[in-house]
Amino acid sequence: MTINSDPKVHKSEEEWRELLTPEQFHVLRKHGTERAGSSSLNDEHREGTFICAACDNLLFKANAKFESGTGWPSFFQPYSADAITEHKDRSFFMTRIEVRCAKCDGHLGHVFKDGPQPTGLRYCMNGVAMNFTPDEND
């Protein structure tokens, strides 16, 4: 797993295509969205860490995950303040806040202000954009 202070990951489009599955490439590099309910990470309830599928950056702790009912893995806070970056997304005739991996700029999903406390935020992530690493105890 990458420590969040590591330098940015830069790869060509061809290198990303070789590294990622077609679905991961579509979501992470082309800002796509996986079909709701399609990710096995929706049902992941073990202790551990969710990491970027492209660069292994630490993104979310399992104890920040909650059941949002949206069909996508949802979290109320990132792993750390420098794990992700946020960007205005004005696609589809609306304004949303896009969430990207801070290390590789891979598209992860969006954040909304309708989540649980303590933050009130819902980081609605594409499961295909992440991998899960269980704690060693699990």
UniProtKB/TrEMBL annotation:
Family matches, as PROSITE patterns: MSRB
Catalytic activity line of the entry: L-methionyl-[protein] + [thioredoxin]-disulfide + H2O = L-methionyl-(R)-S-oxide-[protein] + [thioredoxin]-dithiol
Native species: Ahrensia kielensis
A Pfam short name: SelR
Annotated EC: 1.8.4.12
Gene3D superfamilies, A to Z: Peptide methionine sulfoxide reductase
Domain MsrB: 13-135
Name the record gives this protein: peptide-methionine (R)-S-oxide reductase
Keywords on record: Oxidoreductase
GO molecular function ontology, one term from the record: peptide-methionine (R)-S-oxide reductase activity
